[in-house]
């Protein structure tokens, strides 16, 4: 029996097992589905939708091309990607998963990137948003606003390091490492923006409508993956598969001097980032440093749920998924390492009570991240429904105009 047939049998068996589990545990499946749905329409959709629409409009109006010319001297030497990669990097950090992948795929479709450049770029433009790190993890799970600054610092430094490490990926195939401009940089940037806008002959209304529909399509796909992996994670837990896998990695955790009690959260986090982070914060046998290291790894690896979302987005282009997956493993370990490396200075300054110069926004009573997170949970569903209705209106208008 060849490898292809074995793969077919394995995949069919896994899907059949999951279907049988859903039949045997309908209440658990429904509970997990509702949890995933709430996460999507309360947090994910409201926080990502504006960024997705804005990125589409910025690309259409040539602003991204303008930024690309200006950022070329920075992005090319550091990461060996065009300057437009700076836009994907910034938007990815601001809005979180999987905005970086969507923008990278869009830039590839527009011809701004070669395949190797796109694979380098997507490896470090996907990361957790500050809202998730501060609002959900540090405040919501750990109840420690100050911890968010260490987690964010380790996460983004790890992300930067991944970009540096992946800069030589596909070195032999790249032919656009150097680009010289004859005119001043600002003049070139303005000219590039103008030419890009002229090439896009869509009216403003059409451009906005396409941006809204494209963004909602992507967010519906993301919602499907969130719900699916929420159910999968729940079923794996109740089928004791998570516990079995956790037993297998206890020895591996001991190599890094992490307690065996973190094995279950690590397996949960490998599948789904939110549940893994939450379970990590609830392990009382581990110290706060050990919990932070595991949470950093989970944030960096980002979970199969996010990776599946990225794989679906990249499948619309010729960008390969393997470099992104390798980068996520690197990001996970690097984030954990930086958390360990900077823990003592962080603890001495912010957790020991010896500091007398803590900024106001670091004080425990200042919980604006938590307020923002709760505001999204309160008004997010209403915003999601409103945007879906607008999308339906665009569809109706398009169908009427065609007829």
3D structure, described in words:
This protein is mainly α. It has one domain. Helix content is 77%, strand content 0%. Helix 2 (26-60) crosses helix 18 (368-402) and helix 8 (147-165) crosses helix 14. The longest helix has 35 residues, at 26-60. The radius of gyration is 22 Å and the shape is globular. Mean pLDDT is 82; it is low at 354-366.
Salient structural properties:
mainly alpha; 18 helices; globular; 403 residues
In short:
The chain has 403 residues and is mostly helical. Helices cover 77% and strands 0% of the residues.
Low-confidence stretches: 354-366
Please report the number of helical segments.
Answer: 18
- What is Rg? 22 Å
Tell me, rounded to a whole number, the average pLDDT: 82
Helix content: over 70%
What letter string, H or E per element, gives the SSE order? HHHHHHHHHHHHHHHHHH
- Total strands: the figure is 0
Largest sheet: none
Percent of residues in beta strands?
under 5%
Terminal CA distance:
54 Å
Number of domains: 1
Would you tell me the structural class of the helices and strands?
mainly alpha
Coarse morphology: globular
Organism: Siminovitchia fortis
InterPro entries: Gate_dom, Spore_IM_YlbJ
Protein name: Sporulation integral membrane protein YlbJ
Keywords: Membrane, Transmembrane, Transmembrane helix
